[in-house]
Design brief:
Helices cover 41% and strands 14% of the residues. It is an alpha+beta fold. It has a 5-stranded mixed β-sheet with strand order 2-1-5-3-4, with helices on both faces. It binds FE2/S2 (inorganic) cluster (2 copies).
């Protein structure tokens, strides 16, 4: 009897939330104190989002909520109700890596890779708003993301290379859309 009462209480404590994760609708039952980081890793098995300090200091857990980088270790899953969440698993589209992912792989922006998912998403949020940031703007955007491996030089160079690739791919798209431009 006690067991049943305890179970009912714990069930009552859970709440169902609905949100979008990587463009797909999801429904999850979560305890009120569960963080978005825990929900992503434990309930949705999206382990690309990394578990670091859990104190808001390392930035390894960053994901995008409605396009803005947030620290998922400090963000309650319940707050994500109705929101659109992007994790690193959703960056590739139609089987193609995002240009940021390609540039990080090509230029050594990712070494052990622990900080990389959060850095990629933080940079994506920056480039979605500001397609041509300078080095200081990139540095400022990444000021909350700690990396123990790269010394940051390769990270900055990777972001700058991705900006060039994005720019070229957009020019390519524009050209293809001009009637009579061939193709
Ligand atoms: S895990 Fe370090 S800031 Fe979230
Ligand atoms: S690549 Fe290892 S912590 Fe950044």
């Amino acid at each position: 009897m006690n067991k049943v009462t305890t179970l009912k209480r714990s069930q009552q404590q859970n709440a169902h939330i609905g949100c979008q994760v990587n463009r797909e609708p999801v429904q999850v039952s979560v305890a009120p104190g569960k963080t978005l980081l825990e929900m992503l890793r434990e309930d949705l098995q999206l382990t690309g989002t990394k578990h670091g300090c859990e104190l808001g200091e390392c930035g390894a857990c960053a994901v995008l909520v409605d396009g803005e980088p947030i620290l998922s270790c400090l963000y309650l899953a319940l707050e994500a109700e109705g929101c659109s969440i992007d994790t690193v698993e959703g960056m590739a589209l139609d089987g193609r890596l995002h240009p940021l992912q390609e540039a990080f792989a090509d230029l050594g922006g990712a070494q052990c890779g622990y900080c990389t998912p959060a850095i990629l998403l933080t940079c994506k949020a920056l480039l979605d708003k500001q397609p041509d940031p300078d080095r200081d703007q990139i540095r400022e955007a990444l000021s909350g993301n700690l990396c123990r491996c790269t010394g940051y030089q390769q990270i900055f160079e990777s972001v700058e290379e991705a900006i060039l690739r994005l720019d070229h791919s957009e020019q390519g798209t524009d050209l293809k859309s001009v009637p009579g431009s061939g193709g």
